[in-house]
Amino acid sequence: MGEVWKNPLTPWRGDAEPAEAASDPWRDPGEVWRAKRASSVPMHKVGRLRYFWKAQGHGERTWNRLRYWPTRRRVLDIRGEYNPKILRREKTILDRRPIYWALSFLAILLAPLIVPGDLQSTLISAGTVFLIYAAINLCWTLIIGTAGIFSLATMAVVGAAAYGAAAMSVFYGWPWWTLPFVGAGIGLVFGVVIALPATRLDGFYYALLTLGLNELCRVYVVQSRTFGSATGGLYGADSFIPAGLSPFGELATGYYAAFALMLVALALFRFVHGKRLGRILRMAPEKREAFAQAVGINYRAARIQVFILSSAALGLIGGFYASYFRGASPSLFSFDAVLLGLAMLVIGGIGRSEGAVAGTFIVILIDKVFLSLGPIRLIVIGLIMLGVVLFLKNGLFGIKQQFRAWRNKKKSENRSSRAEKGGEMLPEEATETEDKDLIYARRFDKMQRDYLKTIVSERLIEEHQRNPLGQHSEPLERLLMYFRRQPQVDKYAITVIEPFKAYRIVALSGHRGVAPRLVEEKTYPTEAEAYHAVFLRRVQDLLEY
Amino acid sequence: MSQVKLFGYTDRISAKPGERIDVHVNADGTDTAEAQLVRLVHGDAHPSGPGYIEEEVACEANGPWKVWKQYTQVGSFLRVADPHQRLAPDGSFTVFTYLWSTLPMVGLRQSLVGRWDIRSNKGFGFGINRKGFLEFWVGDGSDVDYVAAEAPLIARIWYFVAVSYDARTGRAEIFQEPVVNRYNSLLGKVVPMDYRSHVAETLRFRPRHDPQTPFLIAGAQDWHEARGHFVGQCFCGKLDRPGLYGRALSREEMAALQAGQRPADGLLAFWDTTAGYTERGIGDTVIDTGPHGLDAVGYNRPVRAQTGYNWNGRNDCFRLAPQEYGGVEFHVDTMIDSNWSVTRTLTLPDGLKSGAYAIRLRAGPGRGLAEEYVVFFVRAKVPKAPVAFLVPTGSYLAYANEHLSFDAQIIQPMTGQPPIVDEIDIEMYKNPDFGLSTYDSYEDGAGVCFSSFRRPILNMRPKYRMSSMGTTWQFPADLSVIAWLDQSGFDYEVLTEQDVHQEGLAALKPYRCVLSGTHPEYISERVLDATEDFIAEGGRFIYMGGNGYYWNVAYRDDEPWIMEVRKLDSGMRAWAARPGEHYLQTTGDKSGLWRNRGRPPQKTLGVGFIGEGFESGKPFRRMPDSYHRTVSWITEGIEGEIIGDFGLAQGGAAGLELDRYDLKLGTPPHAKIIASSGGHTDNYVLSVEEVLYAYPGMTGTQDYRIRADMVFFTAPNGGAVFSASSIAFGQALPVDGFKNSVAKLLTNVVGAFAKNGPVPGEAWISDEKQWR
């Protein structure tokens, strides 16, 4: 069985190496190459046709880029790139939302002109309600999403402002254009008052508190004579809709005014969420506040600022509301209004403007347009909300991201279940590899390891232990050569604890400037023992990999 | 309290007693350090030798020193002194340059040309953004506005890039066109890539300039509260002929610029990187041929004499076609001069014995990183001794702070062992401030061609072991020779290659016998000439090492502490210079191996490099020639034929790197081989300049050429040369208290060489009896 390797250096005298070493029979390194004629895993065809149009680059022509005046933002965020498959220049629109917004605005703008005559009143007033609620929800999503304050007092602010504004108009005869400002003032005061507990309470307790506040307001106005407990609301406020307009004119004026209101809310969202405040708060999401604080971010102050700003805006919307509906009603404070608003946010996705608007649109559509469905409407809304909460991580507009994450998970699952451990690349992996040389390097490495595994033996290890440096038998030399040629990442090395007395094993980082990491605590008294310990680790890695 | 760390360097490597030298020290975690002048005797703590030996020397500077934290500017760039603010145009302007970038996708912003302050966001910059696109940006002190190209830059492609900015309309137009010919770029014309990009955009505001911000090429000013101003956003790659116009050029005009037509109308500056080249080299100043003459000065020595955008492969040297060699190469991770403030100036005691000295600094625990030896060499005021040790400072520079164990995948197959790194190695690796050696490559893969003494050199200190080989190397290895000299009773002095480079033969002439270091691999022409003349004029030279007199290197007269080498064509080399970049910018000479310039080491020393291996050492065995009476005195007193089957370097006097006798390469015809080593392992491989075709079996156990030949020959005027031909030879001397066959042999040689009069055995020149 055993063979003997004769050291070619034996005739030279004074050598440290042994004259011979016990060895296993020679094995042909070509064997593994002859044996391996095909991949052992199923290979799929890869490559996809592009079914959609993509703008191509233009080296020659000057590209005049436009911006949203007066900001620095380009109209579209476009990346020029080379298609890695054919090196063709392409332009990718990284963020298509501006296009969708523009189309939506156009649709909102044109909608009243194309609604059928018999549904005109229902649809346009539903549209107006949608736009007002969209504005409210944009402010609310700033509070819940951006600031991360779980406040349910939104409708309370809006309602209080609406009542206050209506009262000013009804009792003191203030004109309609003052009402939003009155509302904003009330919202600001309200915001400051309810912001105070937010610094001490959080999560569930704060939600409870604000819900209680909402209920308090409702009970107050229902019972208050001044606020029309008898008439079911306070009416008679001045309206921006001039008297004497045609019914369509009245509807359209309200509708477009609400549209303008929503645009103002969107602008507010953009300025808070997209600028410094929003960035600060995105650094400090829930459960990571400590980190934000550690890097010097005063997230509490930022949260309160957002809250107060949004409250003032909500107040303004309340004033607008009073002016549009010519007053206010206790239904503003009703619990179902709060819940419907929450449904709108959750369905669209909290913390994003398109989520707030689209969520509002869906809920209002069901609630105010499909009136014929009767009470089932609310069950439908509940079901949609339930579905969203159950299956989606971040509402409808989180679907894309969620789908991508799911797809990546599936991709790696599929690959790992098919690919051989440490084996050659799958076709889909190969297409993702920039340097195709690596694909062959993987194949070669696999073949090498398959061969080297067959020559590792007790005898080889003993031979190395006797003589870690110097001339070795052919199989041991091959094994060592493979180990020494490994890339630097996580390659074993030795570190000195005390020269000629204590050594330890480390692994090199392979990254410039990054120190090696300690592999184990054990110390070795001599260099030779450390060399052998490194060898044993390498053999173990080879056999395990 | 942070960990105590001390690092230092001197303003010069060689000094005479009574002279003043400046010591620059950086200290972490302490503000005082205990200084002691020491004479270094033996630097290898290997248990088979005498251990580490130093001698404390009285000096006025001994005692506590006040030390402080020092900062180092890493990265090369050009700085333009612009006292009249001519390069801060308030109105429109146009910036242009040719560009060949190596790491556009590295993910860090890189400035090409501009006057930009990173901290205050003031000024303008033209560079590569974090995504790898060309970008022009302006700042008004709070906001930054920018315009970027449409297509990312491709690495190692020559482009002409420009941006014209119209202050009236705010319109900025990026101009990016390739200037690829068949030779100059990584890719050729078969690649279906459109490199062009033209983007115009209206910026919101005009740049506000800060008069304090310097105009920089390949960098931008930054600030740190402890450190003050420094330069960041450094660039990796080559720039060629940048310039600045004081008006907004149209696209047609920029296209004309690309074609080399530069109208004088509105030209503010044009740095003609090809101007000022001389037959004898290129300096650090890039000349502005524009109206104001605002020359740019290189920091950390940007590499010049590099091929430019219009290099077409015909000319291979800047001397032949300067206009094709406008490339100036920058690296973010290059460091030539630490430029630390002087910690202490000390006067060397007058009666100081010539030798290797260091200021030993200790603080805190006083060992490891808390102990520093700032090494320098003291030569004799007036040479008196017959024997001199020639310190191979060029090779110390070449290996200074080498990172092979960490960065070079080839090092373990080469040395046949896992590296043994210590905390000093790890500190060096973690800290880019120490710079790189000529064995390293920059992050972008280009080889390092400059090395300097004006920085802490962590592997030029006693006790240090080269991590990849597990032995001492260069300075600490040379200390074994110094230790032998010290105990031998011979009167000796030391001098450095730098002295020989500056003074020529005159520096060597006073000595009868000169010993080289164990690995004098990097040799300037002047040192080679002086050595050759010394031997030819009757001097006796002992070549104590292996792989010596190998690379052609250059120093500039005004900055002799910086060495340049370019590795090319053949030779065991850590990197290869790119095509067309084979000539030293310092002198205009072709670099590479002396052998490839017609001066193989065999011509001077009788032997030259043949192979290397690092995991074992072997003994020499006497060769029959050594019995001839002309040379038998060399081995007198040595029992048996085996010489040096021991040593601190892998247990043999023949090891690490080996040299061989070769008549075809100019070994003097009368040279005799005294002893040769043999039985080298297969880790010893033939050096590549010997290889025309590679075939299996060019290793120690199969190729007879892989061996060290101890060679002796006589030279004109009573001169003589003895070559040991192995690096490990010197490290065999200290074994058994310097009482061993190698030490005995060297005693015989030095004894004979140091005496006046002819070398022994000179008279035995007749034909042999033929009847024996």
Automatic annotation (TrEMBL), chain A:
CDD domains: TM_PBP1_LivM_like. Its main location: membrane. Residues 411-423 have a biased composition (Basic and acidic residues). The chain crosses the membrane at residues 98-117, 123-143, 150-171, 177-196, 203-221, 254-273, 306-325, 379-399. Keywords: Cell membrane, Membrane, Transmembrane, Transmembrane helix. The keyword Membrane applies. InterPro entries: ABC_transp_permease (IPR001851), DMF_alpha_dom (IPR058713), LivM-like (IPR043428). Residues 440-543 form the N,N-dimethylformamidase alpha subunit domain. It is a multi-pass membrane protein. It holds the Pfam family BPD_transp_2. It is found in: Cell membrane. Residues 1-26, 410-430 are annotated as: Disordered. This is N,N-dimethylformamidase alpha subunit domain-containing protein. The lineage of its organism: Bacteria, Pseudomonadati, Pseudomonadota, Alphaproteobacteria, Hyphomicrobiales.
Automatic annotation (TrEMBL), chain B:
InterPro entries: ConA-like_dom_sf (IPR013320), DMFA2_C (IPR046540). Residues 307-734 form the N,N-dimethylformamidase beta subunit-like C-terminal domain. Gene3D superfamilies: 2.60.120.200. This is N,N-dimethylformamidase beta subunit. The lineage of its organism: Bacteria, Pseudomonadati, Pseudomonadota, Alphaproteobacteria, Hyphomicrobiales. The gene is dmfA2_2.
